[in-house]
Amino acid sequence: MNVLITGAAGGFGRATANECARLGYNLFLTDLNERGLICLKQGLERQFGVTVAAKACDLTETASFDDLLEFIDENGIRFDMLLNIAGLDHEGAFISRSSDQLASIVALNDVATVRITHSILKRRRTGKPFTIVFMSSLASMFPMPVKATYAASKRFILDLSFALRHELKEQRVNVMALCPGGMVTTEEAVKAIEAQGFWGDITTSPLEIVARKMLRRATAGKSIYIPGIFNRCLAFLGRLVPRSIVAAVVFRRWSATGKNT
User: Which of 25, 47, 241, 256 is most buried, with most CB under 10 Å away?
Assistant: First the structure.
């Protein structure tokens, strides 16, 4: 099993790479953080004895992206699974962020994810089943004032996942969306979770457990995975309540959270 993981040097990317290596998968890791990639590659090879290739890449930059594909083609690498983990958020209200920061969320979460998925689909192993996991979010289930751009970018990913699942089914491609709540991945994310208090604690899931269950469900052909019973209940309620009411409730909660940050 040859697996490509984007955002591999981040918190959840590392947890996912570790779980893949534990299962004996050969890995191709990419991330903007070259030093982090090298350390991860060496650690996985030493601990699990799997084959690990790593190539630093800024997926939002055309030249860097093309260099990544050229590296893959020069080495004749073909894949059985693509795990789209790379993603970005900038905490804070829409008007408090710069336009470049807001655009960077869409550039990585959506544009880069579409490009890498399209490119790796053409580089899948011939005659074999193929699996794609898209990193969406629980936020994709709701309109979210104060996190509007991020939530909308993840809604795009969720809809893309459902659409491609049906479009590619006859080509033996399974597509799954991962929609976690809080994830302890960066210092900024930790602060945001802590600021939410009880709600942050109850919606946050351990990275290692999410990674393990995600892979299990993806290889079993599931369409979506929302970690945590409480998060699944929230997603269900979000489908029942009018979106305008959901937006108002979310705005009040995030406004209170902002005061605690």
Answer: 25
